[in-house]
């Protein structure tokens, strides 16, 4: 026990007695808040509430039961997302801005990925029992659309891009490859930061048109281009100053990642950098909490995915001939691990463990 009466340092869990039991009750029922919000998104309640209405009017607009809708609207009011006055429900201004499909800033599509995750996570017990992803036989919900998945990636990436650009720096970068680049949000942010930088988003056939659309909307379509490819098999080309593996390695097992890192390293120009941007585990794999939670997300979603420690990334990068491997935690839950290809004529010194800056 720590001196503060809390459990293991950093968990915030009370050590014992009634406070500990209360924390357990909170953990057991935490899903209820989440499910209420997800159901509101699934039924598009915030668009249905629109400029205001009684529970019966909202139920009619969204095609739901009056009693069920009243229960949900009252909870959303208690949660602060709606206001109720004289029997009329209205979205608070921020909910109207971000959750009403009539708003140009609506982010509902990005959240729909969490609805899909709810289905997948319903299979967690089975995945822990048998080590396999949650079944895709319809019992854990329908398959997710590419648009919804990439919308969610875009929402996260747009929020994190300033930290990544700042952490990596774009000085001296002329050619960048964004492997599994998804919506292209990071490539777009790098291109906007450096007017001579050209980025290529490599992704699946059904994803690259989405990246191309975002690049056009951002006004950088001339410098952010796309390439259809399979990162698990293709050669990546050559001469890149920067290769980004953002939220990619967690989809795969250690052997696939060692191979992706090896092929990426050979595609770098001398002095070029390989950047892994992902959740990075502590060396003992028992933290940080967002990363351990995400390992479970990969358990229910993938055959072999997970998160890795800075030491594991450093081992793959060093085996691929990269030097100066450094781990840099960014603001928020993600980190970068960066390795550099040797310059012509430069010799490799013995490599220390990854430095944390
Ligand atoms: C989790 S998303 C990350 C997207 C983006 N890099 C980001 O950080 O927001 C993983 C991306 O990898 C792509 N992907 C998955 N397997 C792939 C493969 N074998 N070859 C190319 N792209 C792949 C997916 O289509 C998706 O865009």
Q: Gap between N and C termini, in Å?
A: 30 Å
Strand order in the largest sheet: 5-4-3-6-7-11-10-12
What hetero molecules are in the model? Answer: S-adenosylmethionine
Q: Give the averaged pLDDT, no decimals.
A: 93
Q: What's the total number of strands?
A: 12
How much helicity do the residues have? 40-55%
SSE-based structural type: alpha/beta
Q: CATH superfamily of the largest domain, please?
A: Vaccinia Virus protein VP39
Plain-language structure description:
- This protein has 357 residues and is of the alpha/beta class.
- The protein has two domains: 28-105, Arc Repressor Mutant, subunit A; 158-284 and 301-356, Rossmann fold, CATH 3.40.50.150.
- It has 13 helices and twelve strands.
- The strands form three sheets. Strands 5-4-3-6-7-11-10-12 form an eight-stranded mixed beta sheet, with helices on both faces. A two-stranded antiparallel ribbon has the order 1-2.
- Helix 12 (289-301) links the parallel strand 8 (280-281) and strand 9.
